[in-house]
Amino acid sequence: MEPIRTRMTALARRVQDQVCTAIEALDGTAMREETWERPGGGGGTSRSLQDGHVFEKAGVNVSAVHGELPEGAVAAMRERKQNLPDGRAFFATGVSLVLHPRNPFCPTVHANYRYFELAGGAAWWFGGGADLTPAYLFDDDARHFHRVHKAACDKHDPAYYPRFKKACDTYFRIVHRDESRGVGGIFFDDLDEGGAEPLFALVADLGDAIVPAYFPIARRRAKHPYDESHRRWQQIRRGRYVEFNLVYDRGTVFGLKTDARIESVLMSLPLTARWEVADRPEPGTPEAALLEVLRHPRGWT
Amino acid sequence: MEPIRTRMTALARRVQDQVCTAIEALDGTAMREETWERPGGGGGTSRSLQDGHVFEKAGVNVSAVHGELPEGAVAAMRERKQNLPDGRAFFATGVSLVLHPRNPFCPTVHANYRYFELAGGAAWWFGGGADLTPAYLFDDDARHFHRVHKAACDKHDPAYYPRFKKACDTYFRIVHRDESRGVGGIFFDDLDEGGAEPLFALVADLGDAIVPAYFPIARRRAKHPYDESHRRWQQIRRGRYVEFNLVYDRGTVFGLKTDARIESVLMSLPLTARWEVADRPEPGTPEAALLEVLRHPRGWT
Lengths: 301, 301
Hints:
Two copies of one chain form a homodimer.
Chain A: H1 4-27, E1 32-37, E2 42-50, E3 55-68, H2 71-80, E4 89-101, E5 108-118, E6 123-133, H3 139-154, H4 160-171, E7 173-174, E8 179-180, E9 185-191, H5 196-221, H6 228-247, H7 250-257, H8 262-265, E10 272-274, H9 286-295
Antiparallel strand pairs in A: 1-2, 2-3, 3-4, 4-5, 5-6, 6-9, 7-8
Helix pairs in contact in A: 1-5, 3-4, 3-5
């Protein structure tokens, strides 16, 4: 059998293909592809769509990079993880996507699955997750998204979903607003327990879960009637998405401080966003109902 | 004579009045005022305007707050400044403003002047500055803005302007884009050399310089004809403004991590912003000319 690093790179590409096929089918627009090389080693392929029929902005990136980690990056890892081997040689591969639909009733989705090796594989781990960010809450959508992810997790260990769901609510918190970014999903990092083969199988199933978890929702909401007031609220929520990603998201903050490819790091940002002086919704409105759930995350399965 | 803290609070209010009078006269719109109290001590007054005729969003805030600094804040200060006195009692007062005009040819302006005391005045310093952020470059505007600030500085010490101009170019750098936020101005922090009275006189003159430095430019550019392509570029540059403020601006980053009033901390963000997949301007265009100056800051006096 091929080593995990090779199979994970192939998995990332397969997920990219699956998701891009679903995007193009729903949107009726061909995505633009750009292949790039990393000066220090490796490279990636970005597929993107802007100003489509359904998606205002969509990016699906894969990369497989290797080389020497900067000192600062290694120091940060050592703070997080005990007993790391000496050496700064690394390999990292994964798939990362953010889809921002135009329709305010159609939620944004983010997913990312990645595999990391240090010192030629002497240490390795998986990280990733998927989460849903609506501007207007449909319980059915949140339930569907969570159920599909729970089913994929449960095939491997019934303890995974509750743990990853909780980690997702903790991670995607806009602390200064005391709000979650969205209605959550799953999140894990530094996952190396129980061996690489079972974890690779888990991540493969989670990668395959993206299309069935999200696209039935997108198809259902993409043509929901809306007016300027809905669009305004969506734009305010997009502003919150920007706040989370630039202030808290580990991958973004890390990417901005290293020599990462800036277009890939910031592809998660929406096409447009809005910050008003006073943006509190009136009590009893659908906008206030969303905020209530963002303040107090709930269970969806 | 009243102590500096009292006179600086009055100065902040006077600058707020001056600038708001100029905004209202140019825009033809009354600003909205909100007074707030800080649970730990003190408070402030925010004046704002949204969706005006000239200004898409404008905020002019004053505050005078006191109490006990969080441990983390004191630790950060001690890293920056030697020989700070013991104790966490603080007093801070100042004025802060960001004006985002609607017209893409009319630049954004930011200014902030503040006075800080630690341990009942055992340590104190002034901080502040003013900078101009155009989406389209007019050399005359940049020159005028810099000259007015140079004249205010030169009254006090001819060494100030070159030093503060350089500090401004260094500070307002969007490092991950290798671009400055705008065409600069002046910036200083931790200024305590030569005694409080001469520095208060400097800051008073700089506060009074905001209206003559900016409003002649705003009046000149507010009715410049523009089309959707200019507006799009302005929105992309507004995205960069958001990136700088959320990732690098000390006051914003510090405010997000403490119990500061979030509406005041984020009032600097534009009403709307835009992030495109590929946003490089064509060589030889006015958009490319701006980028060239942002990459390589130049002298304006």
